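Hypothesis: this fold can be encoded by more than one sequence.
Test: take the structure tokens below, design a sequence, compare later.
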């Protein structure tokens, strides 16, 4: 499997509880390299654009409100099979269903405040990375 890049967000429930380092430790322990990272307080328009695919879902308003309530940390992660590897490290969207030892099992508060986002496919990874980082901000 080739080296890939994926996009990650450490969500407001992580920054609020000062867990950025703890989550990054899990990411690095899984063999993923953080090749770009910045802390941003995203706007409503940015959150709506990022989660546009969920616009018709009943939780959309709650999701946008949650993502704009405090800073997030956006990241590019690099490694072998990075997209699936990070999804394995994150665990299921619903923390109650996440496997033992995953980030969401150990840190997430709820289905909405589930600590981390990771891209689900190569196409979305490329789009999400491009939404938040210019090429010269990614240093592999
Ligand atoms: P994420 O992987 O970032 O993708 C979409 C996000 O929507 C998800 O993580 C959760 O934060 C949120 N989400 C998904 N399902 C629900 C739900 N049923 N109720 C509230 N938020 C949800």
């Amino acid at each position: 499997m080739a080296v890939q890049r994926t996009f990650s967000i450490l969500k407001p429930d992580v920054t609020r509880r000062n867990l950025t380092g703890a989550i990054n430790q899990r990411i690095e322990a899984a063999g993923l390299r953080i090749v770009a990272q910045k802390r941003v307080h995203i706007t409503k328009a940015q959150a709506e654009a990022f989660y546009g695919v969920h616009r018709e879902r009943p939780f959309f308003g709650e999701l946008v409100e949650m993502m704009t309530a405090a800073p997030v940390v956006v990241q590019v992660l690099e490694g072998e099979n990075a997209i699936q590897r990070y999804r394995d490290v994150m665990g299921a969207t619903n923390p109650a269903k996440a496997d033992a030892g995953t980030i969401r099992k150990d840190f997430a508060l709820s289905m909405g405040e589930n600590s981390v986002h990771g891209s689900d496919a190569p196409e979305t990874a490329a789009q999400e990375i491009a939404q938040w980082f210019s090429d010269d901000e990614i240093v592999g």
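The helical segments are 12-16, 20-29, 44-50, 60-67, 82-90, 103-107, 122-132. The beta strands are 3-10, 33-40, 72-80, 116-118.
Hypothesis status: open.
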